[in-house]
Design goal:
Elements: E1 7-10, E2 18-21, H1 27-44, H2 58-62
Antiparallel strand pairs: 1-2
């Protein structure tokens, strides 16, 4: 695994492609927030209340993992 975090947002190079995957066991906890964020991104072209941009696919291509230091 790259960084053990979800990939959320627009799918590069695919018109109207969006992605929400890689949640592992935390999906049930994170799914309401991700659903809201994706709905905002699709409807408004941006995140309005929850900024999920750190989880964008581009971080994978750029080699920028999200490192969580306080995982329980």
């Amino acid at each position: 695994m790259f960084d053990h975090n979800a990939i959320v947002g627009r799918l590069p190079e695919v018109a109207n492609g969006y992605l929400a995957s890689g949640f592992s066991g935390h999906g049930i906890q994170q799914s309401p927030a991700v659903g809201r964020g994706l709905a905002e991104l699709i409807a408004h072209g941006r995140y309005a209340t929850l900024d999920l941009s750190d989880f964008a696919y581009e971080r994978i291509a750029a080699g920028r993992p999200i490192m969580e230091r306080n995982v329980i």
